């Protein structure tokens, strides 16, 4: 499929979904919409991802099969300055994907246009109605389940999971990605937005995905969310941990992050103690261990990055890497 | 208010909401509906609660102000054999309260009857639309927050919380109950059904209740849910733990329960280790400790019960009681 991705005024640093898609989707990105950078190319801003022209609006987008809202404002609502772009996409009859908290299908104009032009509206954060509580069966599956966990939100769990799946496949392993957030779901084309399911069904939703895919793959890599000690999001993390009943954990952290992002008065624990806490919390449900770590060193130069990875490995008492910068060999070897 | 409580074929042992209301509501229960026990009285089946006649159906119910669905079938749906009773209540123009997973207001006949007779349908498990993520502020509130936690579902957390509030008030303490489940919400007339909120908002919903009530009371007792190591429901428990940022925890357990109810292949951890795990999980967000325990000994004779409480106290390394059987002095003294 040919995609255009909306990222007005936020590309690339505040456009996590857009950059995630550019890096990991198998589809072709033919345009990024950012009125602040119209005329540039993606490659002018981000390395090691698909290149594409940056345009000002839908009228400058070539033929596409899907239009993606690739950013979210604070609060997760729809920004009215995007309306012309979404309207234009629907008038072309192409799919529109959105990871916003507020759903495009609840917008009367978009719903009407989608019906008129037979265009699919895909609100990826809208979970299905038939979710249930977990049966507690993930530990009985034949596939080896590996779940990424971490010290905070946005420490690189989705990225590390994507890198792990790619690297595992390069080694000839049968590896599947289990997406739990909007970017991962858009990359893979399926998945459940775990942070949006009813809290009673958190573990059950993860379990459902694993049961669905366990016969297809030998290894399933589950994208983690949040942190088990996050003051706001720990419920999501805990449900993923116990719902996935993983055989192994990969601990993700960002170099030099000492406080919880957006909750700066809360400190991030020592990573070794934190990793042990994940193990202690998992143990009564299904014993597992942190077998390796991935450190996001994107803000460091190479010398500092290598030192930071070494320190991180020591603190974790496990092999470590920066999955993006140095690859996943340490992690895959540890599995 | 005068209540009638529907509990067909399940009173009393499988009618947790009905029995909870009979024990703790300030309202007057004028009838329990159970076609299997029509003609009996509540007192024939349960001690130490309000007495009321048990009747076969709505036609035998005297004047009431509210009709309560006080049971839930497996799956939480509406049982069609109850339709005549709910219809009859709505035709009288009285409120109908329900804790079912499926909402009465989504039933076309009930919605129409409610409108026609100006009767309120209160689906207590239907959370409001405006919930948000936590701000992380519960630890800053002036009130002392006490949260009940436990080894499993149905170990007596709601009951212990109700008993604690009553006992605290008898001591002259300014104590409020923070309800997180359907029975507690019906008892108190307010609250948020934490297991039904979006998982991202779990901690935020608890925090909202605490913020609302913290100025009114010196002590807030938060009703816990599930267990931090429950294979299906741990997300809910974790959100309540971190959302409430409690000053103290009260650990609730049922004597002789060794496996997770409904998930019998999962063992319940040693209670001392389990209590420490709650503390370790809370610590990076807000340090707290298990100050006391309550053991449900309802299936034991008095000698065995006293021995079990003593053993439980030793395992927990904290004072313990059975809050229903022996009162709450040990717990309140420990606070």
TrEMBL record, chains A, B:
SUPFAM superfamilies reported for this sequence: P-loop containing nucleoside triphosphate hydrolases
Q: InterPro entries attached here?
A: DgcN-like (IPR011669), DgcN-like_C (IPR035086), DgcN-like_N (IPR035402), P-loop_NTPase (IPR027417)
D-glutamate N-acetyltransferase-like N-terminal domain residues: 35-127
The UniProt entry, under Pfam families, shows: DUF1611, DUF1611_N
Q: Which residues form the D-glutamate N-acetyltransferase-like C-terminal domain?
A: 133-332
Q: Which domain of life is it from?
A: Archaea
- List, alphabetically, the Gene3D superfamilies matched: NAD(P)-binding Rossmann-like Domain, P-loop containing nucleotide triphosphate hydrolases
This protein is called what? DUF1611 domain-containing protein
Organism, scientific name: Halomarina oriensis
Taxonomy of origin reads: Archaea, Methanobacteriati, Methanobacteriota, Stenosarchaea group, Halobacteria
């Amino acid at each position: 499929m040919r995609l255009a991705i909306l990222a007005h005024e936020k590309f690339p640093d505040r456009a996590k979904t857009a950059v995630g898609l550019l890096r990991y989707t198998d589809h072709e990105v033919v345009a990024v919409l950012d009125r602040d950078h119209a005329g540039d190319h993606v490659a002018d801003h981000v390395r090691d991802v698909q290149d594409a022209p940056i345009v000002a609006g839908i009228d400058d987008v070539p033929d596409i099969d899907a239009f993606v809202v690739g950013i979210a404002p604070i609060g997760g609502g729809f920004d009215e300055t995007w309306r012309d772009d979404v309207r234009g996409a629907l008038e072309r009859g192409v799919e529109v994907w959105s990871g916003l908290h507020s759903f495009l299908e609840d917008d009367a104009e978009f719903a009407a246009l989608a019906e008129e032009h037979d265009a699919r509206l895909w609100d990826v954060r809208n979970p299905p109605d038939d979710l249930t509580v977990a049966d507690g069966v993930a530990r009985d599956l034949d596939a080896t389940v590996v779940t990424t966990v971490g010290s905070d939100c946005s420490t690189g769990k989705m990225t590390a999971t994507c890198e792990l799946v790619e690297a595992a496949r390069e080694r000839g392993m049968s590896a599947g990605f289990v997406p739990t957030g909007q970017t991962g779901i858009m990359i893979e084309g399926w998945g459940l937005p775990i942070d949006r399911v009813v809290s009673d069904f958190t573990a059950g939703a993860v379990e459902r995905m694993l049961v669905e895919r366990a016969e297809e793959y030998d290894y399933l890599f589950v994208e983690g969310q949040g942190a088990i000690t996050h003051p706001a999001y720990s419920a999501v993390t805990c449900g993923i941990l116990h719902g996935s009943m993983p055989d192994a954990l990969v601990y993700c952290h960002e170099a030099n992050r000492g406080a919880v992002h957006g909750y700066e008065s809360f400190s991030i624990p020592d990573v070794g103690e934190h990793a042990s806490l994940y193990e202690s919390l998992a143990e009564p449900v299904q014993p597992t261990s942190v077998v390796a770590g991935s450190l996001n060193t994107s803000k460091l130069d190479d010398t500092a990055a290598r030192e930071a990875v070494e320190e991180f490995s020591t603190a974790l008492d496990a092999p470590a890497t920066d999955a993006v910068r140095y690859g996943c060999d340490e992690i895959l070897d540890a599995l």
